[in-house]
């Protein structure tokens, strides 16, 4: 697929997000049927062109029954609650590259003004995938209530705000779960959105569209939001527990999983992305990794000291090698040498000492795509080995799964074991 300057879309959410994360000229399809009138989205802060109209969420919590249960800081990925200006023109024809949302999930929302509360810049969720409800407090005078069910929306408006809303107050938004990409009417690829909540879908849309703009020729896939079994049990049944127990379980799981991972699970943004076929990181990789940032994550947006730019401004080629300036890589791919205050060698960018330690650059290096997606993390001892700089073509990163794939089962016929029953009174003397 060739590079593009214009895009035609048939979904207002896709159009709004594209306009906030890129300079692309976005137009609406001439046969659009999207009648959304709620154009506020959750976007990664580092992707926004203009942060003036956004609210950075800094705390999150669980919505339990009729109470806002707990309030914990958001760690790791920073999320902006953004109100999109909607002024896209319609396309005259369908020539060029078009993005068609063929499967959408409808959300319903209501905005409450003139409130007086203490939850500014907070997000609360009831954690139910089948009847999701979220409350966002962008400031201390306003609240946004969002649900995928009209009845749930009305019920929680009465429970939380003691307000009975009517149909005229309800706003709608259609977020895509599947996007087909066409070039001059010919299908080129499809993209699936795995998240289910309003926050999760819009946040994943922004990330996937960002990868698409930077790496349009590659197939883009996302994993399901990673949640371990213990958390899944809690998320599924916490509504049946009394609130005083929920508080203790919540805090226990937060510390057991770690604040960064647990907050991303609650917010439903703990996804892996890839340009290969189902090549995601897994629990085995996590345990063996020498870095907090894994394959399938985005490299963090790190500011270059003495400059307003970030590391992302240095990403160029299909594969970018990011490592410490203490090493001299032999490969010819684009290399970005990072240094801290103790470095004496030549470097491309100087970063904060704490960030240098967070990346663990004295022990490992990264391969990063033009969109900032980490395609490999490896030890510095393997830095000058050519084989270590080519990512595996296997479908799986799990070594046990590779062994199963290589096992020849052509002559294997599954059957139940034959059990020989022996009873003492039937035996001959």
Highlighted features:
21% helix, single chain, 429 residues, 20 strands, 5-stranded mixed β-sheet, alpha+beta
Give an account of the 3D structure.
This protein has 429 residues and is α+β, with helices and mostly antiparallel strands. It contains nine helices and 20 strands. A hairpin with a 2-residue loop joins strand 5 and strand 6. The longest helix has 17 residues.
Put the structure in a nutshell.
By secondary structure, the protein is α+β, with helices and mostly antiparallel strands. It is built from nine helices and 20 strands. It has helices spanning 12-21, 150-161, 198-214, 229-237, 243-257, 259-266, 283-288, 353-359, 399-406, and strands at 6-9, 25-28, 40-44, 54-57, 59-64, 67-73, 79-83, 97-112, 122-125, 133-139, 142-147, 171-183, 186-192, 221-222, 273-274, 320-324, 334-339, 349-350, 364-368, 374-379.
Structural class: alpha+beta
Query: How many individual β-strands?
Result: 20
Helix content: 10-25%
- Cα radius of gyration in angstroms: 25 Å
Give the termini distance in whole angstroms: 82 Å
Oligomer: single chain
Our estimate of the beta-strand percent is 25-35%
Largest sheet: 10 strands, mixed
The gross shape turns out to be globular
Question: What letter string, H or E per element, gives the SSE order?
Answer: EHEEEEEEEEEEHEEHEHHHEHEEEHEEH
Arithmetic mean of pLDDT: 82
What's the number of helices?
A: 9
- Low-confidence runs: 386-405
Topology:
Elements: E1 6-9, H1 12-21, E2 25-28, E3 40-44, E4 54-57, E5 59-64, E6 67-73, E7 79-83, E8 97-112, E9 122-125, E10 133-139, E11 142-147, H2 150-161, E12 171-183, E13 186-192, H3 198-214, E14 221-222, H4 229-237, H5 243-257, H6 259-266, E15 273-274, H7 283-288, E16 320-324, E17 334-339, E18 349-350, H8 353-359, E19 364-368, E20 374-379, H9 399-406
Parallel strand pairs: 1-2, 1-8, 5-9, 16-17, 17-18
Antiparallel strand pairs: 3-7, 4-7, 5-6, 8-11, 8-12, 9-10, 10-11, 12-13, 14-15, 16-19, 19-20
Helix pairs in contact: 1-3, 5-6
């Amino acid at each position: 697929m060739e590079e593009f300057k214009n895009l035609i879309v048939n979904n207002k959410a896709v159009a709004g997000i594209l306009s906030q994360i890129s300079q692309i000229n976005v137009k609406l399809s001439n046969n659009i049927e999207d009648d959304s009138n709620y154009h506020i989205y959750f976007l990664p802060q580092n992707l926004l062109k203009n942060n003036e109209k956004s609210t950075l969420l800094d705390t999150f919590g669980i919505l339990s029954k009729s109470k806002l249960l707990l309030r914990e800081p958001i760690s790791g990925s920073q999320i902006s609650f953004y109100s999109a200006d909607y002024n896209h023109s319609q396309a005259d024809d369908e020539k060029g590259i078009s993005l068609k949302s063929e499967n959408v999930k409808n959300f319903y929302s209501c905005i409450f003004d003139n409130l007086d509360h203490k939850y500014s810049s907070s997000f609360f969720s009831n954690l139910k995938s089948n009847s999701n409800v979220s409350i966002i407090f962008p400031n201390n005078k306003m609240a946004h209530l969002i649900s995928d069910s009209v009845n749930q929306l009305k019920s929680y408006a009465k429970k939380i705000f003691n307000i009975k809303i009517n149909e005229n107050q309800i706003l709608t938004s259609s977020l895509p779960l599947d996007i087909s990409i066409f070039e001059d009417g010919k299908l080129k690829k499809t993209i699936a959105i795995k998240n289910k909540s309003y926050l999760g879908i819009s946040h994943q849309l922004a990330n996937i569209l960002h990868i698409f703009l930077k790496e349009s020729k590659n197939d883009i896939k996302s994993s399901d939001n990673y949640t371990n079994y213990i958390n899944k049990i809690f998320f599924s049944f916490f509504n049946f527990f009394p609130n005083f127990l929920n508080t203790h379980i919540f805090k226990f799981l937060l510390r057991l999983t770690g604040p960064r991972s647990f907050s991303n699970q609650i917010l439903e943004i703990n996804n892996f992305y890839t340009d290969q076929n189902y090549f995601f990181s897994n629990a085995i990789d996590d345990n063996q990794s020498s870095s907090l940032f894994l394959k399938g994550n985005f490299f963090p947006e790190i500011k270059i000291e003495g400059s307003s730019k970030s590391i992302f401004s240095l990403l160029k080629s299909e594969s970018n090698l990011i490592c410490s300036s203490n090493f001299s890589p032999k490969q010819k791919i684009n290399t970005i040498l990072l240094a801290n205050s103790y470095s004496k060698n030549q470097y491309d960018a100087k970063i904060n000492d704490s960030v240098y330690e967070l990346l663990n650059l004295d022990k490992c290096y990264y391969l990063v795509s033009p969109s900032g997606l980490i395609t490999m993390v490896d030890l510095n001892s393997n830095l000058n080995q050519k084989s270590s700089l080519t990512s595996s073509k296997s479908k799986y990163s799990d070594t046990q799964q590779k062994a199963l794939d290589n096992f020849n089962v052509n002559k294997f016929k599954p059957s139940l074991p034959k059990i020989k029953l022996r009873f003492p009174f039937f035996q001959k003397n």
